[in-house]
Amino acid sequence: MSTDINSDIGPGQSMAYQIRIKGHLGLQWTDWFAGLAITLADNGDTLLTGPVVDQAALHGLLRTVRDLGIPLVSVRSIQQDESVAFKEGAQEMNPTLTATPVTRSAATHATTMMAIVQDAYGSPHVLRLREIDKPQPKDGEVLVRVHAAAVNTADWIALTGRPYAARLAFGFFRPKLRIPGIAMAGRVAAVGKSVTQFDAGDEVFGEVHSAYAEYVCVAADRIGPKPTNLTFEEAAAVPLAAITALQGLRDKAKVQPGHRVLINGASGGVGTFAVQIAKALGADVTAVCSTRNVNIARSLGADHVIDYTQENFTQSGTRFDAILDLAGSRPLSDCVKLLVPTGVYVSSVGRLGWVLKVAVASLSAGGRGKIVSLTAHQTQEDLAVLKEMLESGKVKPAIDRQYTLAEVPEALQYLGQGHAQGRIVVTV
Description:
This protein is α/β, with parallel strands linked by helices. The chain has 13 helices and 19 strands.
Protein backbone atom coordinates (compact mmCIF):
# COMPACT_ATOMS: atom_id res chain seq x y z
CA MET A 1 0.00 0.00 0.00
CA SER A 2 1.35 3.43 -0.93
CA THR A 3 2.14 5.76 1.97
CA ASP A 4 2.11 8.76 -0.34
CA ILE A 5 -1.68 9.04 -0.50
CA ASN A 6 -2.53 12.27 1.29
CA SER A 7 -5.73 13.85 2.49
CA ASP A 8 -6.92 17.42 2.79
CA ILE A 9 -7.95 16.71 6.38
CA GLY A 10 -5.90 18.74 8.80
CA PRO A 11 -4.43 17.78 12.17
CA GLY A 12 -7.03 16.83 14.73
CA GLN A 13 -9.77 16.39 12.14
CA SER A 14 -10.38 12.68 12.57
CA MET A 15 -12.65 10.89 10.12
CA ALA A 16 -14.85 7.90 10.82
CA TYR A 17 -14.34 4.74 8.78
CA GLN A 18 -15.94 1.33 8.56
CA ILE A 19 -13.56 -1.50 7.72
CA ARG A 20 -15.31 -4.72 6.76
CA ILE A 21 -13.39 -7.98 7.05
CA LYS A 22 -14.42 -11.49 6.10
CA GLY A 23 -15.55 -13.74 8.91
CA HIS A 24 -15.52 -13.43 12.69
CA LEU A 25 -12.64 -11.59 14.34
CA GLY A 26 -11.34 -13.67 17.21
CA LEU A 27 -10.74 -12.07 20.58
CA GLN A 28 -7.01 -12.70 20.22
CA TRP A 29 -6.87 -9.93 17.61
CA THR A 30 -8.92 -7.23 19.36
CA ASP A 31 -5.90 -5.55 20.94
CA TRP A 32 -4.63 -4.79 17.45
CA PHE A 33 -7.66 -2.56 16.81
CA ALA A 34 -8.07 -0.75 20.12
CA GLY A 35 -10.22 2.37 19.80
CA LEU A 36 -12.46 0.91 17.09
CA ALA A 37 -15.91 -0.50 17.66
CA ILE A 38 -16.04 -4.18 16.68
CA THR A 39 -19.38 -5.64 15.64
CA LEU A 40 -20.57 -8.72 13.79
CA ALA A 41 -22.62 -8.12 10.63
CA ASP A 42 -25.64 -10.23 9.73
CA ASN A 43 -23.71 -12.08 7.01
CA GLY A 44 -20.94 -13.08 9.43
CA ASP A 45 -18.46 -10.36 8.45
CA THR A 46 -16.78 -8.28 11.15
CA LEU A 47 -17.05 -4.47 11.11
CA LEU A 48 -14.34 -2.25 12.59
CA THR A 49 -15.88 1.19 13.03
CA GLY A 50 -14.62 4.46 14.44
CA PRO A 51 -12.43 7.53 13.99
CA VAL A 52 -9.03 7.42 12.30
CA VAL A 53 -6.64 10.31 12.90
CA ASP A 54 -5.27 10.59 9.36
CA GLN A 55 -4.60 8.67 6.17
CA ALA A 56 -1.32 7.29 7.50
CA ALA A 57 -3.22 5.76 10.43
CA LEU A 58 -5.81 4.31 8.04
CA HIS A 59 -3.05 2.77 5.96
CA GLY A 60 -1.54 1.30 9.11
CA LEU A 61 -4.85 -0.33 10.01
CA LEU A 62 -5.23 -1.81 6.55
CA ARG A 63 -1.67 -3.14 6.64
CA THR A 64 -2.43 -4.75 9.99
CA VAL A 65 -5.49 -6.47 8.53
CA ARG A 66 -3.41 -7.86 5.68
CA ASP A 67 -0.43 -8.79 7.86
CA LEU A 68 -2.73 -10.81 10.10
CA GLY A 69 -4.02 -12.69 7.06
CA ILE A 70 -7.59 -11.44 7.53
CA PRO A 71 -9.51 -11.10 4.22
CA LEU A 72 -10.36 -7.43 3.66
CA VAL A 73 -13.78 -6.84 2.06
CA SER A 74 -14.17 -3.06 1.94
CA VAL A 75 -13.33 0.31 3.50
CA ARG A 76 -15.63 3.33 3.50
CA SER A 77 -15.96 6.65 5.29
CA ILE A 78 -19.16 6.94 7.30
CA GLN A 79 -21.39 9.56 8.82
CA GLN A 80 -21.31 10.49 12.47
CA ASP A 81 -24.67 8.86 13.25
CA GLU A 82 -23.47 5.59 11.72
CA SER A 83 -20.35 5.64 13.87
CA VAL A 84 -22.37 6.27 17.02
CA ALA A 85 -24.75 3.43 16.18
CA PHE A 86 -21.90 1.01 15.71
CA LYS A 87 -20.23 2.27 18.88
CA GLU A 88 -23.35 1.54 20.92
CA GLY A 89 -23.71 -1.88 19.34
CA ALA A 90 -20.11 -2.69 20.08
CA GLN A 91 -20.46 -1.67 23.72
CA GLU A 92 -23.31 -4.14 24.11
CA MET A 93 -21.17 -6.84 22.48
CA ASN A 94 -17.92 -5.98 24.26
CA PRO A 95 -17.87 -3.05 26.75
CA THR A 96 -14.07 -2.71 26.54
CA LEU A 97 -14.15 -1.78 22.85
CA THR A 98 -15.36 1.80 22.43
CA ALA A 99 -14.96 4.52 19.85
CA THR A 100 -14.08 8.13 20.64
CA PRO A 101 -16.31 10.98 19.35
CA VAL A 102 -16.17 11.75 15.63
CA THR A 103 -15.31 15.34 14.70
CA ARG A 104 -16.57 15.18 11.10
CA SER A 105 -20.22 16.17 11.14
CA ALA A 106 -22.99 14.49 9.18
CA ALA A 107 -23.80 17.84 7.58
CA THR A 108 -20.25 18.12 6.27
CA HIS A 109 -20.31 14.57 4.98
CA ALA A 110 -23.51 15.30 3.04
CA THR A 111 -21.69 17.78 0.79
CA THR A 112 -18.26 16.16 0.52
CA MET A 113 -16.79 12.84 -0.51
CA MET A 114 -13.50 10.99 -0.64
CA ALA A 115 -11.85 10.65 -4.05
CA ILE A 116 -8.52 9.86 -5.68
CA VAL A 117 -7.17 13.10 -7.15
CA GLN A 118 -4.49 13.53 -9.83
CA ASP A 119 -3.02 16.97 -10.54
CA ALA A 120 -0.03 15.90 -12.66
CA TYR A 121 1.20 13.09 -14.87
CA GLY A 122 3.62 10.60 -13.42
CA SER A 123 3.85 7.38 -11.41
CA PRO A 124 1.11 6.18 -9.03
CA HIS A 125 2.73 8.32 -6.32
CA VAL A 126 1.16 11.46 -7.81
CA LEU A 127 -2.28 10.23 -6.75
CA ARG A 128 -3.80 11.58 -3.55
CA LEU A 129 -6.83 10.50 -1.51
CA ARG A 130 -8.68 13.71 -0.62
CA GLU A 131 -11.94 15.00 0.71
CA ILE A 132 -13.57 17.13 -2.01
CA ASP A 133 -16.99 18.53 -2.86
CA LYS A 134 -19.56 15.95 -3.84
CA PRO A 135 -20.92 16.55 -7.37
CA GLN A 136 -24.54 17.39 -8.06
CA PRO A 137 -26.43 15.96 -11.06
CA LYS A 138 -27.25 18.32 -13.90
CA ASP A 139 -30.15 18.02 -16.29
CA GLY A 140 -30.03 14.54 -17.82
CA GLU A 141 -27.48 13.26 -15.31
CA VAL A 142 -27.57 10.69 -12.53
CA LEU A 143 -25.67 10.87 -9.25
CA VAL A 144 -24.34 7.41 -8.41
CA ARG A 145 -22.96 6.23 -5.09
CA VAL A 146 -20.00 4.24 -6.36
CA HIS A 147 -19.59 0.86 -4.70
CA ALA A 148 -16.85 -0.49 -6.94
CA ALA A 149 -14.66 0.66 -9.82
CA ALA A 150 -12.42 -1.17 -12.27
CA VAL A 151 -8.78 -0.56 -13.14
CA ASN A 152 -8.20 -0.27 -16.89
CA THR A 153 -5.26 0.27 -19.22
CA ALA A 154 -6.76 3.65 -20.10
CA ASP A 155 -6.33 4.61 -16.42
CA TRP A 156 -2.61 3.85 -16.66
CA ILE A 157 -2.30 5.94 -19.81
CA ALA A 158 -4.18 8.81 -18.14
CA LEU A 159 -1.88 8.50 -15.11
CA THR A 160 1.42 8.51 -16.97
CA GLY A 161 0.43 10.68 -19.92
CA ARG A 162 2.13 8.16 -22.23
CA PRO A 163 2.20 7.65 -25.09
CA TYR A 164 2.36 11.41 -25.48
CA ALA A 165 -0.18 11.29 -28.30
CA ALA A 166 -2.76 10.32 -25.68
CA ARG A 167 -2.42 13.78 -24.13
CA LEU A 168 -4.43 15.15 -27.03
CA ALA A 169 -7.39 13.48 -25.30
CA PHE A 170 -6.34 13.59 -21.64
CA GLY A 171 -4.72 17.03 -21.50
CA PHE A 172 -1.35 18.12 -22.85
CA PHE A 173 0.39 19.63 -19.79
CA ARG A 174 -1.77 18.20 -17.01
CA PRO A 175 -4.80 15.90 -16.77
CA LYS A 176 -8.12 17.48 -17.77
CA LEU A 177 -9.93 15.31 -15.24
CA ARG A 178 -8.64 15.49 -11.67
CA ILE A 179 -10.32 12.22 -10.70
CA PRO A 180 -9.29 9.14 -12.73
CA GLY A 181 -11.25 5.93 -13.27
CA ILE A 182 -13.60 5.10 -16.15
CA ALA A 183 -15.72 2.09 -15.12
CA MET A 184 -17.91 1.58 -12.08
CA ALA A 185 -20.95 -0.04 -10.50
CA GLY A 186 -23.07 1.52 -7.79
CA ARG A 187 -26.47 2.66 -6.64
CA VAL A 188 -28.35 5.73 -7.86
CA ALA A 189 -28.38 8.41 -5.16
CA ALA A 190 -30.25 11.14 -7.06
CA VAL A 191 -31.40 11.98 -10.57
CA GLY A 192 -31.32 15.27 -12.46
CA LYS A 193 -34.16 16.97 -14.23
CA SER A 194 -35.67 15.07 -17.18
CA VAL A 195 -34.21 11.70 -16.13
CA THR A 196 -37.02 9.14 -16.18
CA GLN A 197 -35.30 5.78 -16.70
CA PHE A 198 -33.64 5.63 -13.27
CA ASP A 199 -34.76 6.24 -9.69
CA ALA A 200 -32.87 6.58 -6.43
CA GLY A 201 -31.85 3.15 -5.22
CA ASP A 202 -31.45 1.55 -8.66
CA GLU A 203 -28.30 -0.53 -9.07
CA VAL A 204 -26.37 0.46 -12.19
CA PHE A 205 -23.06 -0.03 -14.00
CA GLY A 206 -21.28 1.58 -16.91
CA GLU A 207 -18.41 3.61 -18.30
CA VAL A 208 -18.03 7.02 -16.66
CA HIS A 209 -15.50 9.74 -15.93
CA SER A 210 -14.02 10.05 -12.41
CA ALA A 211 -14.93 6.61 -11.07
CA TYR A 212 -12.34 6.56 -8.27
CA ALA A 213 -14.61 8.42 -5.88
CA GLU A 214 -17.48 7.82 -3.52
CA TYR A 215 -19.88 9.59 -5.90
CA VAL A 216 -19.92 10.31 -9.61
CA CYS A 217 -22.28 12.16 -11.93
CA VAL A 218 -22.90 10.55 -15.30
CA ALA A 219 -25.25 11.08 -18.22
CA ALA A 220 -28.22 8.75 -17.86
CA ASP A 221 -27.58 7.21 -21.28
CA ARG A 222 -24.06 6.15 -20.26
CA ILE A 223 -25.15 3.55 -17.69
CA GLY A 224 -27.49 0.58 -17.52
CA PRO A 225 -29.14 -1.66 -14.92
CA LYS A 226 -26.60 -3.83 -13.11
CA PRO A 227 -26.81 -7.59 -13.75
CA THR A 228 -28.82 -8.97 -10.85
CA ASN A 229 -26.54 -11.96 -10.27
CA LEU A 230 -23.32 -9.98 -9.93
CA THR A 231 -21.75 -8.21 -6.98
CA PHE A 232 -20.84 -4.56 -7.43
CA GLU A 233 -17.20 -5.57 -7.81
CA GLU A 234 -18.02 -8.07 -10.55
CA ALA A 235 -20.29 -5.60 -12.34
CA ALA A 236 -17.65 -2.85 -12.24
CA ALA A 237 -15.26 -5.20 -14.05
CA VAL A 238 -17.54 -5.40 -17.08
CA PRO A 239 -17.71 -1.94 -18.76
CA LEU A 240 -15.03 -1.09 -21.29
CA ALA A 241 -13.27 -4.47 -21.15
CA ALA A 242 -16.30 -6.58 -22.07
CA ILE A 243 -17.57 -3.89 -24.44
CA THR A 244 -14.22 -3.99 -26.26
CA ALA A 245 -14.39 -7.78 -26.57
CA LEU A 246 -18.01 -7.73 -27.71
CA GLN A 247 -17.60 -5.05 -30.35
CA GLY A 248 -14.34 -6.53 -31.59
CA LEU A 249 -15.76 -10.01 -32.09
CA ARG A 250 -19.38 -9.33 -33.01
CA ASP A 251 -19.12 -6.04 -34.93
CA LYS A 252 -15.62 -5.96 -36.41
CA ALA A 253 -14.85 -9.66 -36.91
CA LYS A 254 -18.47 -10.68 -37.58
CA VAL A 255 -17.99 -13.92 -35.65
CA GLN A 256 -20.59 -16.58 -36.48
CA PRO A 257 -21.29 -20.06 -35.07
CA GLY A 258 -18.59 -22.48 -36.21
CA HIS A 259 -15.97 -19.80 -36.88
CA ARG A 260 -12.43 -20.44 -35.71
CA VAL A 261 -11.27 -17.53 -33.55
CA LEU A 262 -7.82 -16.84 -32.12
CA ILE A 263 -7.42 -14.47 -29.18
CA ASN A 264 -3.89 -13.25 -28.52
CA GLY A 265 -3.68 -11.98 -24.94
CA ALA A 266 -6.48 -14.21 -23.66
CA SER A 267 -5.75 -13.92 -19.94
CA GLY A 268 -5.90 -10.14 -19.55
CA GLY A 269 -8.81 -7.88 -18.71
CA VAL A 270 -10.29 -7.84 -22.22
CA GLY A 271 -9.04 -11.31 -23.14
CA THR A 272 -10.88 -13.13 -20.37
CA PHE A 273 -14.13 -11.63 -21.62
CA ALA A 274 -13.21 -12.25 -25.26
CA VAL A 275 -12.78 -15.99 -24.75
CA GLN A 276 -16.21 -16.27 -23.16
CA ILE A 277 -17.99 -13.97 -25.61
CA ALA A 278 -16.50 -15.80 -28.58
CA LYS A 279 -17.80 -19.07 -27.13
CA ALA A 280 -21.20 -17.46 -26.54
CA LEU A 281 -21.23 -16.51 -30.23
CA GLY A 282 -20.68 -20.15 -31.13
CA ALA A 283 -17.00 -20.00 -32.12
CA ASP A 284 -14.21 -22.54 -31.76
CA VAL A 285 -11.72 -20.58 -29.64
CA THR A 286 -7.94 -20.73 -29.51
CA ALA A 287 -6.48 -18.76 -26.61
CA VAL A 288 -2.88 -17.53 -26.54
CA CYS A 289 -1.39 -16.82 -23.11
CA SER A 290 1.60 -17.56 -20.87
CA THR A 291 2.23 -20.76 -18.93
CA ARG A 292 0.80 -19.41 -15.68
CA ASN A 293 -2.50 -18.58 -17.40
CA VAL A 294 -3.13 -21.78 -19.36
CA ASN A 295 -5.52 -23.21 -16.77
CA ILE A 296 -7.41 -19.92 -16.54
CA ALA A 297 -7.93 -19.83 -20.30
CA ARG A 298 -9.23 -23.39 -20.27
CA SER A 299 -11.56 -22.69 -17.36
CA LEU A 300 -13.07 -19.82 -19.35
CA GLY A 301 -14.04 -22.23 -22.13
CA ALA A 302 -11.19 -22.03 -24.66
CA ASP A 303 -11.19 -25.07 -26.94
CA HIS A 304 -7.44 -24.82 -27.57
CA VAL A 305 -4.75 -23.04 -25.56
CA ILE A 306 -1.31 -22.06 -26.87
CA ASP A 307 1.42 -21.24 -24.36
CA TYR A 308 3.39 -18.55 -26.16
CA THR A 309 6.48 -19.27 -24.06
CA GLN A 310 6.58 -22.75 -25.60
CA GLU A 311 5.08 -22.26 -29.05
CA ASN A 312 4.88 -19.53 -31.70
CA PHE A 313 1.19 -19.42 -32.52
CA THR A 314 1.85 -17.92 -35.95
CA GLN A 315 3.53 -21.19 -36.95
CA SER A 316 0.72 -23.47 -35.86
CA GLY A 317 -0.54 -24.03 -39.41
CA THR A 318 -4.16 -23.46 -38.37
CA ARG A 319 -6.22 -20.91 -40.29
CA PHE A 320 -8.72 -18.67 -38.55
CA ASP A 321 -11.86 -16.79 -39.48
CA ALA A 322 -11.01 -14.10 -36.96
CA ILE A 323 -8.06 -12.97 -34.87
CA LEU A 324 -8.54 -10.59 -31.96
CA ASP A 325 -5.08 -9.28 -31.11
CA LEU A 326 -4.83 -7.72 -27.66
CA ALA A 327 -1.07 -8.08 -27.24
CA GLY A 328 0.73 -7.27 -30.49
CA SER A 329 3.40 -9.78 -29.56
CA ARG A 330 4.04 -11.21 -33.03
CA PRO A 331 4.70 -9.47 -36.37
CA LEU A 332 1.51 -8.23 -37.94
CA SER A 333 2.32 -9.88 -41.28
CA ASP A 334 2.69 -13.27 -39.57
CA CYS A 335 -0.68 -12.87 -37.87
CA VAL A 336 -2.47 -11.92 -41.07
CA LYS A 337 -1.11 -15.04 -42.81
CA LEU A 338 -3.15 -17.13 -40.39
CA LEU A 339 -6.44 -15.82 -41.80
CA VAL A 340 -8.68 -17.65 -44.22
CA PRO A 341 -9.42 -15.59 -47.37
CA THR A 342 -12.54 -14.09 -45.79
CA GLY A 343 -10.96 -13.74 -42.35
CA VAL A 344 -10.69 -10.57 -40.28
CA TYR A 345 -7.80 -9.40 -38.09
CA VAL A 346 -8.93 -7.03 -35.32
CA SER A 347 -6.36 -5.12 -33.28
CA SER A 348 -7.02 -3.53 -29.91
CA VAL A 349 -3.32 -2.92 -29.21
CA GLY A 350 -2.87 0.67 -28.05
CA ARG A 351 0.83 1.15 -28.80
CA LEU A 352 1.19 4.02 -31.27
CA GLY A 353 3.66 2.18 -33.48
CA TRP A 354 1.36 -0.81 -33.72
CA VAL A 355 -1.66 1.37 -34.48
CA LEU A 356 0.24 2.93 -37.39
CA LYS A 357 1.27 -0.51 -38.69
CA VAL A 358 -2.34 -1.68 -38.64
CA ALA A 359 -3.50 1.50 -40.38
CA VAL A 360 -0.95 1.04 -43.19
CA ALA A 361 -1.63 -2.69 -43.53
CA SER A 362 -5.39 -2.14 -43.73
CA LEU A 363 -4.88 -0.06 -46.88
CA SER A 364 -3.05 -2.85 -48.67
CA ALA A 365 -4.65 -5.98 -47.20
CA GLY A 366 -6.06 -7.10 -50.53
CA GLY A 367 -6.95 -10.78 -50.60
CA ARG A 368 -5.09 -11.57 -47.37
CA GLY A 369 -8.07 -10.57 -45.29
CA LYS A 370 -9.53 -7.55 -43.66
CA ILE A 371 -7.38 -5.68 -41.12
CA VAL A 372 -9.05 -3.26 -38.71
CA SER A 373 -8.31 -1.34 -35.54
CA LEU A 374 -10.80 -1.34 -32.72
CA THR A 375 -11.81 1.61 -30.57
CA ALA A 376 -14.76 0.58 -28.45
CA HIS A 377 -17.66 2.93 -27.70
CA GLN A 378 -20.09 1.96 -24.97
CA THR A 379 -23.82 2.00 -25.68
CA GLN A 380 -26.79 1.17 -23.46
CA GLU A 381 -27.78 -1.45 -26.01
CA ASP A 382 -24.46 -3.27 -25.59
CA LEU A 383 -24.68 -3.00 -21.81
CA ALA A 384 -28.06 -4.73 -22.11
CA VAL A 385 -26.55 -7.46 -24.31
CA LEU A 386 -23.81 -8.07 -21.77
CA LYS A 387 -26.34 -8.01 -18.93
CA GLU A 388 -28.20 -10.87 -20.61
CA MET A 389 -24.98 -12.84 -21.17
CA LEU A 390 -23.93 -12.32 -17.56
CA GLU A 391 -27.31 -13.19 -16.06
CA SER A 392 -27.58 -16.32 -18.22
CA GLY A 393 -24.16 -17.49 -17.08
CA LYS A 394 -22.60 -17.40 -20.55
CA VAL A 395 -20.07 -14.82 -19.35
CA LYS A 396 -18.59 -14.21 -15.91
CA PRO A 397 -16.00 -11.62 -14.85
CA ALA A 398 -12.61 -13.04 -13.92
CA ILE A 399 -11.34 -11.01 -10.96
CA ASP A 400 -7.61 -11.10 -10.26
CA ARG A 401 -7.18 -8.69 -7.36
CA GLN A 402 -9.33 -6.38 -5.29
CA TYR A 403 -8.22 -3.13 -3.62
CA THR A 404 -9.75 -0.35 -1.56
CA LEU A 405 -10.12 3.26 -2.69
CA ALA A 406 -7.06 4.22 -0.64
CA GLU A 407 -5.10 1.54 -2.48
CA VAL A 408 -5.76 2.78 -6.03
CA PRO A 409 -2.06 3.71 -6.49
CA GLU A 410 -1.09 0.15 -5.58
CA ALA A 411 -3.76 -1.22 -7.95
CA LEU A 412 -2.45 0.87 -10.83
CA GLN A 413 1.12 -0.13 -10.04
CA TYR A 414 0.09 -3.77 -10.31
CA LEU A 415 -1.71 -3.11 -13.60
CA GLY A 416 1.38 -1.38 -14.97
CA GLN A 417 3.45 -4.50 -14.35
CA GLY A 418 1.40 -6.24 -17.05
CA HIS A 419 0.80 -9.53 -15.25
CA ALA A 420 -2.86 -9.24 -14.23
CA GLN A 421 -4.89 -12.42 -14.64
CA GLY A 422 -8.27 -10.96 -15.50
CA ARG A 423 -9.71 -7.81 -13.97
CA ILE A 424 -8.52 -5.58 -11.13
CA VAL A 425 -11.28 -3.91 -9.12
CA VAL A 426 -11.54 -1.30 -6.38
CA THR A 427 -14.09 -1.46 -3.58
CA VAL A 428 -15.25 2.05 -2.63
